[in-house]
Amino acid sequence: MKSILMVCLGNICRSPLAEGILRHKLLDAGILDLKVDSAGTSNNHIGQHPDSRSIKNALSHGIDISKLRARQFSVADFDSFDLIYVMDSSNYKDVLALARNDSDKRKVELLLNVKWTGKNIAVPDPYYGAGDGFETVFRLVEQACDEIVKAVKSDI
Ligand code: 4NP
Predict the structure, then answer these.
(1) Residue boundaries of the structural domains of the chain
(2) What dihedral do alpha carbons 128, 132, 138, 140 form, nearest 10°?
(3) Which of 34, 35, 38, 153 would give a disulfide with 19, using CB separation of 3.0 to 4.6 Å?
(4) In 3-state terms, what secondary structure has residue 108?
(5) 77: β partners
(6) What is the best residue among 6, 46, 94, 127 to mutate for testing ligand 1's pocket, by most ligand atoms within 8 Å of CB?
(7) Cα separation values, 70 from 104, 108, 115, Å
(8) 53-110, pLDDT tens digit by residue?
(9) Is 0.90 surpassed by the pTM of this model?
(10) Which class does domain 3-155 fall in?
(11) Contact, 149 vs 29, CB < 8 A?
């Protein structure tokens, strides 16, 4: 079974949304054997539900992420997941700093490189911005998740 971990800073805005979107799309595609989770590089929000703006945005697209709880990324995640998708270059740096070897490092990729290969585009942090930052996150992440589902389908 393949497994994918979505990572951002707090695990309350972007990565829970990414987790919810990917889960939803996999279910829609009838793919039930792929493990999806999310985590944050920081310990600031451990145990918290996603930000209410993220929950609201997801719900407006028919996705319920309200039950998720934030957790911190740990070295053990390199063993538990095949692919680790980070939202921005700061997450990338923080996760790579914990990598023990090249195999760990090879698992880490900017999420939007799945859609826009090599462009290193970040999923912008919506935490301090206006409300529609969450819709921007949704639209970007959704496009990457469509590519992931396509890739998983063609792998079957
Ligand atoms: P996230 O957003 O990394 O997408 O979950 C943030 C959440 C919290 C903070 C920053 C970004 N914060 O500074 O507390």
Answers:
(1) 3-155
(2) -90
(3) 38
(4) strand
(5) none
(6) 127
(7) 22, 20, 26
(8) 999 999 999 999 999 999 999 999 999 999 999 999 999 999 999 999 999 999 999 9
(9) yes
(10) alpha beta
(11) yes
